[in-house]
């Protein structure tokens, strides 16, 4: 890490160099159980000053299905202009498998990904493709519970579409496994995985296209800031897309708090780094 990453208490000065933010939802705007009021106020401030806020989530559901939960736990609708999810990208990726036998690994709440589709539900022994949106019960299960299932699928070379590349997220004060953890286990067994969402390019192309649509003109990449708590998703994806990033420290990467030493350890050996870091998004 050639230069120390500044730790900010306010994003106001950095905001002056941006026209648009691409903001992670779970980890920045809320923790799965309650909203972060300061983050919402910061986004509203940017919008008040003429900026654009696009929320970008690895949620394995369409953005329209994410909004009610966000609103219910306190993320105000006026804090953002638009949003999109890995679920939106997943529906596009599923298109080439329409009409085939599909095994869905994930909770019932993610079944909306398949709404209106012509897939034939199938057990592992018959599936042509696997859609992984998470664990069936992320409250009690870990990837170890899926070893036998993944072994059987890998033996048949069944391709997997991962609707959420996140490995873990915070839910309240706990850490839970996501679809990305199962996908990583599947790849370790030789399975083929296609990923939707961050850090992969399609979802960033969508976000930048939405910013251009809302601004009604192109916006230079150096005027866009990605804000997230996931190093291998939010920050890596921003780097690959040619965008600046702000790291919001979470207990996943900074369990003992944010400091220069923590940032040095996290980014010294990585080929990318954020322009700044914050313990939480705030104006």
Describe the structure.
The protein has helices at 12-15, 37-48, 63-72, 86-94, 147-155, 179-188, 201-215, 231-240, 260-267, and strands spanning 20-24, 52-57, 82-85, 101-105, 120-121, 129-132, 160-162, 168-171, 174-177, 193-195, 224-228, 244-248, 276-278. It folds into 2 domains: 12-87 and 199-278, HAD superfamily/HAD-like (Rossmann fold); 96-195, 3-Layer(aba) Sandwich (Rossmann fold), CATH 3.40.50.1000. 43% of the residues are buried. The chain has a 6-stranded parallel β-sheet, sandwiched between helices. The longest helix is centred in the last third of the chain and has 15 residues, at 201-215. α8 links the parallel β11 and β12. It is of the alpha/beta class and 283 residues long.
Question: Can you describe this structure in just a few lines?
Answer:
The chain is α/β, with parallel strands linked by helices and 283 residues long. The protein has helices at 12-15, 37-48, 63-72, 86-94, 147-155, 179-188, 201-215, 231-240, 260-267, and strands spanning 20-24, 52-57, 82-85, 101-105, 120-121, 129-132, 160-162, 168-171, 174-177, 193-195, 224-228, 244-248, 276-278.
**Numbering strands along the chain, what is their spatial order in the largest sheet?**
3-2-1-11-12-13
CATH superfamily of the largest domain: HAD superfamily/HAD-like
Summarize model confidence as the mean pLDDT. Answer: 93
How many structural domains are formed by the residues? 2
The dominant shape is globular
Please count the helical segments: 9
For the sheet with most strands, the description reads: 6 strands, parallel
* Text of the CATH class of the largest domain: Alpha Beta
How much β-strand is present in the residues?
Answer: 15-25%
